[in-house]
Structure formats: C-alpha cells, structure tokens
Amino acid sequence: MKIESAGAAGGRPVPQVRRRADHDLAACAGVLAAVHERDGYPVNWPDRPGDWLAPPSLLSAWVVELDGRIVGHIGLCRSDEDDVAPRLWSTRAGGRTDATAVVCRLFVAPAARGRGIGALLMAQAVGEARERGLHPVLDVVASDTAATALYEQLGWELLATVERQWEPHGTVTLRCYAAPTAPAWPPGRTSVTTSNEG
Fold first, then answer.
1. Rounded distance between C-alpha atoms, residue 76 and residue 63, angstroms
2. For residue 194, what pLDDT is reported?
3. Fewest CB within a 10 Å sphere: which of 30, 142, 158, 163?
4. In 3D, which of 103, 102, 120 has the Cα closest to residue 190?
5. pLDDT tens, 6-47?
6. Using an 8 Å Cβ cutoff, are 184 and 155 in contact?
7. CB-based contact 52:42 (threshold 8 Å)
C-alpha cells in the first residue's frame, strides 16, 4: 500500500509513502548525510547510519518516494527508559510509559522540502501508533526550529523543555511533545489518500 498526498499541482510528481524495506537503508543513509551536512541532524553522526535508522526498539518505519527517489524517512519506536517524552506524557495523562510510541528518525531531503512531506510522514507514524493503541510522543533538539514549527502546526502539545547530556556533544536542550488526542490537519495543507499500488 502506498499513501499519497492529494492535489499535486502542475504535473509535479506526487510524494508517496510506503513501508521502509531493508534494501532502502543505503538510500536513507544518503539522504540522512545530506540532512546532517545542512542541518546538523542527527546531532551526533552515527558510525553505522543503517543501524541508527533501525534501532532494536523500532516498531515500524516508512519512506517517502518522489519521482522514484527516497526523499524522506520516519520511524516509530517503543519507548525506552531513557526517553523523556513518554515519562512526561504518562505523568500528565496518568498513563504508563509503555502506552506511548516515540516518533523518531524523521528527516526530509533538503531539495524536497516545502511539499508537505514531513506532515505526510507524521500522519503515517501517528496513524500506526493509534492503531496499536499507543499515544505518539517525541522529542526534538530545541535549535531545530523547522521541526518544532511542523509539530506545533500539526497541533502537537509541548510537554516541557529539558536539558540532556549527550556525549560527546555535551548538554543539549530538548523540546518534548505529545500528539493531540485527535488527528489534526492544518487546513489546506496536506490530505492523505490511500492507493492499492505496490
């Protein structure tokens, strides 16, 4: 199954979301390298990018293809005891940390931005979390203002801003978010339709 953003204008290629396959990892690592060079994400470049994209806690991952090339990625992970956002949400909501899923490894190729790809990927991960009966949460480095703007535009709630020690980089400031209780779409931005192709 592929997920497409509706309303491609002017004959431009339509972004398509699909579940990530193992053979996609090399292409994903290439896109991640371009993102790291431009934006500094991830803060600490992993020795093995493929392993970083497929952590043991991973529940599922998706990619976006545009004109036959992978241009975006997102993952959904089980919460880990070191994750801050699940603890914050469970304290506030009176739930358990294992009732959350962490949205992770979200990035979009610099050349493909401004087409709603981030929102499309977020919708996929949030939908999967909800199908599993889990509440989506995430954290983001506070300096990543483009990402925080996306989450807030999608209606995510800021739980807290916290300091964390990340070696060898030192202390980083993280903004922790929880998804809204109901799906929220910015009006006129992106809608999602399903297609039975692939």
1. 12
2. 32
3. 163
4. 120
5. 444 567 789 999 999 999 999 999 999 999 999 999 988 999
6. yes
7. yes
For 21, the token pair is: 């396959």
pLDDT for res 165: 82
Residue 8: how many other CB atoms lie within 10 Å: 12
Q: How far apart are CA 187 and CA 191, in angstroms?
A: 9
Distance CA 121, CA 113 (A): 12
Looking at residue 175, its pLDDT comes to 96
- Which residues of the chain are modeled with pLDDT < 70? 1-10, 168-169, 182-198
Distance of alpha carbon 159 from alpha carbon 40, whole angstroms: 24
Supply the DSSP string of the chain, one letter for each residue: -EEEES---TTPPPPEEEE--GGGHHHHHHHHHHHHHHH--SSS--SSHHHHHS-TTEEEEEEEEETTEEEEEEEEEE--TT-HHHHHHHHHHT--GGGEEEEEEEEE-GGGTTSSHHHHHHHHHHHHHHHTT-EEEEEEETT-HHHHHHHHHTTPEEEEEEEEEETTTEEEEEEEEE--SS----TTT--EEEE---
pTM for this predicted structure: 0.84
